[in-house]
């Protein structure tokens, strides 16, 4: 354990040391400009090799959290992306393209669905998954070829967390997409799991990346079927088959598929399926119906489903039956379903228009579905700052990535065509600033 002022840096691996330093930066215990211990001194204090500490420092530099400052050694960057809270107020006039949230004007009207809710509350012994919703969910999922034992959780993150904590042990290695959903990464760290990053391209997590994770001893693999956050990737039919072949020989592996985009998707679902002994498929209602609903349908093998329900009962209890009935009403409401279909087409059009315009101007934006685009950049902090100077807030990729090179996330869920030219012009200037005049 190494003391920097009043903060103790800990860790016996590069990932653990990096996480400890990140925590210090986030909490303000390692303030901007703070020098970190020299590599050899920290290695001696922690009882690890200098190469381990050097690897941690190198990853932190790549993610824009620390920098080399001459005789001062390695210091916390003054504009580290970790220093800005995700919900910090933006300066007046700055348009937020960093939030990663759906357009509330495209969410279905709940008036009719609410009118169909039960008029009486239930008692404790009546709680749990509503059988009628499970039957309806079985019909909905079967259209996409998803079978299995069904249950209900309080959103996708709850389903993923319950699946992991009932199947794995702290310290186990979990393979996640890189870059990927920040909430999953934070949840894994808080739960004591180690993480392994799987590179992502437009067809989803790469087969080579999954193979490397398996060789490294991953006990679980988490993938996003469609609208991957932050890259907008969608698992293709070819990629799904490649992953099936890789995973078939691993009966003890937990496979988690997150299909949060669901009915909004303009592309078919390529379900990897129950090719391992433990598997979970999660379909959240948050993006199509509303983030505040906090309801997800989970299909899984019988044993894992039973563990999920048992742990949920011991933790936060059942998902509100009122919310479950509300989801049921929305699924049966033809007007609500038309609104969801319209929203899906609108999101896709907004994403494609902005993505194509960026590409036409030499910006290699990635995105195939969902709310976001991913743009590789040389320096995240510089790009984020330059975009803000031009009136737009974009999210630094360091919040989402492990080993993937730098990038920024642009949320396009509310971008209208009339705004595209200005956004592209700002992005071109931010990524390729004009050099000094000669």
The CATH class designation of the largest domain is: Alpha Beta
Fold-level CATH name of the largest domain: Aspartate Aminotransferase, domain 2
Biggest sheet character: 8 strands, mixed
Cα gyration radius (Å): 23 Å
- Which architecture name of the largest domain does CATH use? 3-Layer(aba) Sandwich
Plain-language structure description:
- There is one protein chain.
- The protein has 438 residues and is an alpha/beta fold.
- 39% of the residues lie in helices and 16% in strands.
- The strands form 5 sheets. It has an 8-stranded mixed sheet, with helices on both faces.
- In the C-terminal section; belongs to the class-I pyridoxal-phosphate-dependent aminotransferase family.
Summarize the structure.
It contains 15 helices and 17 strands. The chain has 438 residues and is an alpha/beta fold.
Features:
Arc Repressor Mutant, subunit A; eight-stranded mixed β-sheet; Aspartate Aminotransferase, domain 1; alpha/beta; three-stranded antiparallel β-sheet; 3 domains
